[in-house]
Amino acid sequence: MMSSLSSYFQDLQEEMIQWRRLVHKHPEPAWCEFGTATFIAQSLKKWGFEIHMGKDLICEERMNLPAQDSLDSFYKQASERPDLDKELLAKTKGGYTAVAGVLEYGDGPVKVFRVDMDALPITESQLNEHRPYINKFASAHEGFMHACGHDAHTAIGLGLAKYISEHKEQIQGKIIILFQPAEEGLGGMAAVVKHPLFSKVDEAYGFHVWANRDPQDFICGTYGQLASKKFDVKITGKASHAALAPEKGINAILPAAEIILRLEQLKAEFPSHIRLNIGQMQAGTARNIICPEAILKIETRAGDTITRDKLYDAAIRTIEKITRKYDCSCKVSLVGEAESAASSTELVKKVKQTVTSASLFANCIEEELHNTYSEDFCTLMNHVQQSGGQAVFMGVGASNNAGTHHQPHFDISEEVMWKTARILAAVSILT
Questions:
Q1: Under a CB-based contact definition with an 8 Å cutoff, are residues 339 and 379 in contact?
Q2: What is the number of other CB atoms lying within 10 angstroms of the CB of residue 280?
Q3: Under 8 Å CB-to-CB from 44, ≥6 apart: which residues?
Q4: Residue 102: its H or E element
Q5: How far is CA 53 from the centre of its chain?
Q6: Are the beta carbons of 124 and 145 closer than 8 angstroms?
Q7: CB 252 within 8 A of CB 294
């Protein structure tokens, strides 16, 4: 069985590479994954899966939804692609881009495999040493690229789906493959997790390829992902002529500047494992106008949910106090959040046994602690575990020496895709 599994996915490798490169060429950010979701849905439909997508799957309010012009622009790009099923595409319109494929065969456990698929607002490298550029699958959407590996995740999820569809007699129970939007903003999972599909899950699996890890590394379970809250702050002052009547204006830049400095000082009041970052500031209209509005985009992270919430609450109190001091008003909008989570020990051992038996990765690492990233899958992990099920988040080394994540030169070793799909297939059919 194990050797035939490896042979199947080795034979599927070239097709998986084609899927990854197609998705890489058409990157779509959070809630705009129209083309990607449609390509996935039509593939799952062809392979005999029961399809849930669009408004049928998204059952909660979507955080950090893009402006309508962005939604329209990406939908138009997808609608112009001749390879996409227009009827399925229509189900994603408006930013309803989640897709789940369900296949059931006999009695047995319910297993969910989460796959993220959104891209980032980064302009991809066009240097000659960048492989996607050389091989002509670099981003066709200016200003956006897959710089975190979600294109590879999509290909891995499709590889798993195709195997299951052709070997469903090996399944005992129900398999759900969830292709989740908006992972990068930490809001996609919250919009789907309360769907009846996930009301009683026995096992949930998530994974990520890591461009800063050796391709021989497979991490069977991770612990301690940072809990995070992402929020926008809109500070409102009053415009006025900066020379004729500055006293009639209220400059929103002043409280924004003090907030930035004070939040940096706030870090010292918390444990060293917290993160607080002001990633963006937008303010002002012209040098001779008292600035009427400033926007700060901020995130907080901590090793546990309680500390995250304490840090967030302290930041909000600081922001509100400073804006009052300058006679400004402020509005805080929560645009994404993730919890901390720990992989289930029993499921980690199951994954380790599978990886060891497959002999595809030289370094089988049972567990990795104190990760300094946040992961939207943690919301599903906690949901499943609180309902009596088990969950695990795995890591796969995928370095090809192109640097780390979230930068223009990002790329991965594509060989790890078939190996990862093969591991997932093995755990999908294990009782």
A1: yes
A2: 10
A3: 51, 99, 101, 161, 177
A4: strand 99-105
A5: 18
A6: yes
A7: yes
DSSP letters, 279-328, are EEEEE-S-TTB---EEEEEEEEEESSHHHHHHHHHHHHHHHHHHHHHTT-
User: Which residue shows structure tokens 């004070």?
Assistant: 262
DSSP 351-387: HHHHHHHHT--SEEES-B----S--THHHHHHHHHHT
Give the integer Cα–Cα distance in Å for 163 and 260: 51
Tokens found for residue 122: 């980064």
> pLDDT (tens digit, 9 = 90+) per residue, 378-414?
899 999 999 999 999 999 999 988 888 999 999 999 9
* Weakly modelled stretches of the chain, pLDDT under 70: 1-3, 224, 369-372, 431
- What stretch of H or E contains 50? strand 50-53
Query: Mind listing the pLDDT tens digit for each residue in 111-126?
Result: 999 999 999 999 999 9
In whole angstroms, give the CA distance from residue 362 to residue 415.
Answer: 14
Tokens 């223009």, located at residue: 408
Structure tokens at 286: 């012209």
Q: Any bridge partners for residue 238, and if so which?
A: 250
Strand order in the sheet with 110-116: 50-53, 99-105, 173-180, 110-116, 203-210, 390-397, 217-219, 363-365
pLDDT the model gives residue 185: 78
DSSP, collapsed to helix, strand or coil, labels residue 106 as: coil
DSSP reduced 3-state for 196: helix
- What is the percent of the chain where pLDDT is above 90? 82
Q: Would the CA dihedral through 4, 10, 15, 19 be positive or negative?
A: positive
Contacting residues for 388 by C-beta, under 8 A, at least 6 apart: none
Give the DSSP letter of residue 250: B
**208, containing H or E segment:** strand 203-210
Q: Residue 112 is encoded by which pair of tokens?
A: 């969910």
- Predicted pLDDT at 342: 87
N- to C-terminal Cα distance for the chain? 14
